[in-house]
Automatic annotation (TrEMBL):
EC number(s) given by UniProt: 4.3.99.3
Full protein name: 7-carboxy-7-deazaguanine synthase
HAMAP family: QueE
Keywords: 4Fe-4S, Iron, Iron-sulfur, Lyase, Magnesium, Metal-binding, Queuosine biosynthesis, S-adenosyl-L-methionine
Top-rank taxon: Bacteria
Chain sites annotated for binding Mg(2+): T41
Gene symbol of the encoding locus: queE
Family label: Belongs to the radical SAM superfamily. 7-carboxy-7-deazaguanine synthase family.
Cofactor: S-adenosyl-L-methionine; [4Fe-4S] cluster; Mg(2+)
Cofactor stoichiometry and binding remark: Binds 1 S-adenosyl-L-methionine per subunit.
Annotated pathway: Purine metabolism; 7-cyano-7-deazaguanine biosynthesis
Binding site for [4Fe-4S] cluster: C32, C36, C39
Species this chain originates from: Oceanisphaera sediminis
Residues binding substrate: I13, Q14, G15, R28, S79
């Protein structure tokens, strides 16, 4: 079964969430069942880019992973688009056999049995500002599909007050999940403006706003984190 691949890049560092700063390779799949208003990865989302998503076998993906990692096993982060749309069982099995571990980024809208093979699962349901609905039953099915050994965390992007209040309510329902809050980048690079400079001052102002709210509300089990790679490498692709 082939897997639609947008890009494979790294080693870099995980720029977001519970594993921030951890060296990792990225395997980005093509295609998404969502279209968030502020998505920073439209080249792996919008159907008009489908011709750019190469159908690859698990063997071919692992060959590229081994080449990029110099044959030294490390964390491989599956992202997209929505990687949960792809048949990833073989890739996970082959990668584990070679000593690699796997994290996956998904919004939790599509569940697969192979979630049970993941070492890390970051669930990032979408807030109101995204324009997408939160399907709680699909989210909880994603949670239930994780394996005994899978470290699951919740990552919520916050663009405004309504998102913040939504996040408080969602997080309160899943107190068992480590939680990171991430300010929304309101002006990510787009296919029309691929070289758009990151407005770092505005991003940091949003981060400050979020920190101020979390501390004022004494929301002490929320970690507030930026998108580190965006601060380091601008809105560049493949970093
Ligand atoms: C590009 S998505 C791919 C994986 C999956 N579709 C998902 O949304 O979790 C990876 C992460 O980037 C976040 N993200 C996307 N666009 C963003 C933006 N403009 N600002 C902040 N985070 C963003 C998503 O919310 C998600 O947590
Ligand atoms: N360095 C880096 N960290 C990331 N964490 C989540 C990413 C994503 O696009 O899914 C991402 C990304 O694109 N780059
Ligand atoms: S679910 Fe993820 S990849 Fe899909 S549109 Fe939203 S942010 Fe982009
Ligand atoms: Mg990204």
């Amino acid at each position: 079964m082939s897997i639609a691949i947008s890009e494979i890049f790294g080693p870099t560092i995980q720029g977001e969430g519970a594993l921030i700063g951890v060296p990792t390779l990225f395997v980005r799949t093509g295609g998404c069942d969502f279209r968030c208003s502020w998505c920073d990865t439209l080249y792996a989302v919008e159907p008009r880019f489908k011709a750019d998503w190469a159908p690859m076998s698990a063997e071919a993906i692992m060959a590229e992973v081994k080449q990029l990692s110099g044959g030294q096993p490390l964390l491989v982060t599956l992202s997209g688009g929505n990687p949960a749309l792809q048949p990833l069982t073989e890739l996970l099995e082959q990668g584990h056999a070679e000593g690699y571990t796997f994290a996956m980024e998904t919004q939790g809208s599509k569940v697969q049995d192979w979630f049970a093979l993941l070492d890390h699962l970051t669930l990032s349901p979408k807030p109101p500002s995204s324009g997408m609905a939160f399907n709680r039953s699909r989210f909880e099915a994603s949670l239930a599909a994780a394996g005994e050994q899978t470290r699951v965390s919740l990552k919520l992007v916050i663009a405004d007050e309504a998102d913040y209040q939504w996040a408080r309510a969602v997080a309160a329902d899943y107190p068992q999940l480590p939680l990171t809050l991430q300010p929304c980048n309101p002006s990510p690079a787009t296919p029309e403006q691929p070289d758009l400079e990151t407005d770092t001052a505005s991003l940091n102002a949003r981060l400050r706003w979020l920190v101020d709210k979390v501390t004022a509300d004494r929301w002490f089990n929320a970690r507030v984190l930026p998108q580190l790679h965006v601060l380091i490498w601008n809105n560049e692709r493949g970093v």
